[in-house]
Backbone:
């Protein structure tokens, strides 16, 4: 029977940006088990402590890269050693919170080129630039129906959001002045519009 007194995990962290999606990678390393019947190790992880939703057979190695992790998310990792159908109990648990992302992290700080914009009753197009460190993702909250984001609602690194403000007129009635607060890269951006002249 395979005995595992202590399988020690340590984290060696790597953060990558694949072309297809924003995701993080973490490399787990551990001390080898001194047992000549050992066949390999398994990695278990999830987003709640001791509630592992994913299992990976790492093979007979002492390091494994877990890819495709969501940004700004805390993950809980553990490992086991196995020999045929016999598997050890879980090792001690380690946690890692992936950096970056819209919800923010210590390494990602954002700023906007302006705090807002004002439009006349007839509306028009506008834009706001987002400044972000390399590898930091961001997005915009959903605007009200009278504002349409035409490009740049999500991005990584620096970017520009382009939007259009519809005319402020309710058919033959006068439109009242209106304003909307958007959250862009965690920053407040206010769009205001004058009432209809009709």
Residues:
């Amino acid at each position: 029977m395979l005995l595992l007194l202590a399988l020690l995990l340590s984290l060696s962290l790597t953060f990558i940006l694949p072309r297809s999606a924003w995701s993080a990678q973490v490399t787990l390393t551990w001390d080898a088990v001194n047992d000549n019947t050992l066949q390999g190790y398994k990695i278990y992880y999830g987003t709640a402590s001791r509630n592992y939703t994913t299992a990976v057979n790492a093979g007979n190695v002492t390091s494994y890269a877990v890819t495709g992790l969501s940004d700004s998310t805390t993950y809980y990792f553990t490992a086991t050693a196995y020999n045929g159908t016999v598997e050890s109990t879980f090792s001690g648990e380690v946690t890692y919170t992936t950096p970056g992302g819209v919800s923010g992290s210590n390494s990602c700080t954002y700023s906007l080129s302006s705090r807002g914009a004002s439009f006349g009753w007839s509306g028009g197009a506008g834009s706001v630039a987002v400044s972000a460190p390399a590898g930091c993702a961001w997005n915009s909250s959903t605007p009200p129906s009278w504002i349409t984001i035409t490009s740049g609602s999500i991005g990584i690194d620096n970017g520009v959001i382009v939007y259009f403000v519809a005319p402020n007129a309710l058919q033959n009635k006068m439109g009242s002045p209106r304003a909307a607060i958007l959250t862009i890269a965690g920053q407040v951006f206010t769009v205001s519009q004058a009432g209809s002249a009709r």
